[in-house]
From TrEMBL:
Protein name as it appears in the record: Quinone oxidoreductase 1
Enzyme Commission number(s) from the entry: 1.6.5.5
Annotated gene: qorA_1
Family annotation (Gene3D superfamilies): Medium-chain alcohol dehydrogenases, catalytic domain (3.90.180.10), NAD(P)-binding Rossmann-like Domain (3.40.50.720)
InterPro entries to which the protein is assigned, alphabetical: ADH-like_C (IPR013149), ADH-like_N (IPR013154), ER (IPR020843), GroES-like_sf (IPR011032), NAD(P)-bd_dom_sf (IPR036291), Zinc-ADH_QOR/CCCR (IPR051603)
Enoyl reductase (ER) domain residues: 12-297
Amino acid sequence: MKSSVLIAKKYGQPDVLEVVTTDLPKLAVGMARIQVKASGINPIDARRMTGEFKHSGFPQTFGTEFAGVIVEIDSNNSGWNIGDEVLGSGGAFTHASVIDVPTVNLVRRPANMSWEVAGTIAGVGQTAMTILDEIGNIDSLLIHGASGGVGSITIQLAKERGIKVVATASEKNQQYLRDLGAIPVTYGSGLLQRIQTVHQDLFDASIDMIGNEEATQASLQAVKSNGFIGTIAGRPVSSNRVRPVWVKRNVGNLQHVVDGIAAGRFKWEVSATYPFENAKQAYSDILDGHTRGKSALTF
């Protein structure tokens, strides 16, 4: 079977991206072959493209989450069949028309969930659950750069746990954060003062989604001395109090998020969709930042 795969043969801006057609190898044990219907685009994809993150050699492939239909399955598998509609975390890549994925990563797509929504959940949903699991039991949380995919679901998962959330974003996304259940604050000059205006006590924890010094300094002053200060941005930090958080794949955590979205308990916004052939534009928009919710490639 052939697959059209998004690759880059060098680092750079979106013009380095190209689609190549490749023959897939024989399906390995424990794997499912998926005809992709939608795949989420995350900032990490664009940052790998530019070379900010150097995770692999060339050609690079991209994408960590997907939704699609099983077209081939390992004969030793139990529980999955050809034709099943699924979503989950990918194997090597997901920005491709056909991909091979470990069956342990799969979750069934709810019938009331669009392909675009289903294809954008796995990466950010499991990241948000990892954040809250690592923070532990708290009463208050400060989230920097909260209007993107991870921030949006972290707010809602935190509120589900009874946590008070103060969240920062641009002016245009303040009502969006409020609708998700957070107390919104605009970032920029005077950030700490605006945070302290809406939350006078010190926070139990903070998490930075964007990775800038303004967020770091605000957290150092706004979080308890024994509190948790974390970042998922993957950028150098100026204080050893700031702890990197890396996603831990957990299909149970993913199922919890999927069930919540399907039942209407969690809001999920896909703010932009792009046909696969327009991947360059999708990556360009991700690089521009200030995104709200998620973006998806469709096939």
